[in-house]
Write a structure and sequence with these properties.
Blueprint (H helix, E strand, L loop, with lengths): L14 E6 L3 H17 L4 H20 L8 E7 L3 E8 L20 H8 L2 E6 L5 E8 L4
Antiparallel strand pairs: 1-2, 2-3, 3-5, 4-5
Helix pairs in contact: 1-2, 2-3
Amino acid sequence: MNQQNTTQVLSPTGHFSVLLSPTPRGARLARLLAVEWMRDHEVPYGVTEAATQVVAELAANAATHGRVAGRSFRLALLSQPEVLRIEVTDTRADDLPHLQPPHPEGDSGRGLLLVEALADRWGVGLGPVPRKTVWAELDLPRP
């Protein structure tokens, strides 16, 4: 018999990462992929709904404000027993996100306010140059 020994490398079940184009289509795909991953990993419904909105906002910001021609952004989801962490990394470390009051007649400027309202914690990490990572954490209910 012709048998081969193969080794299968499994990725950690609580981690997902993907590179996406910094376009509206890439931001939409980030949201769709995150929803599927959270369903597969049985993230509770309420957390999934909030996390979906956070992913949408952070991915849209990466596609809009973090866009550099020819460079992708990365979406990462990390699930630990007590927290779901969302990370969006782009290559515009010179353009750091910050909360600002929205203009009543403006069409934008509310994304980070939504992230602040939905996430239990959020922040920005720098590096390696020229990258920045905007992250948000949502606490998971204890079983």
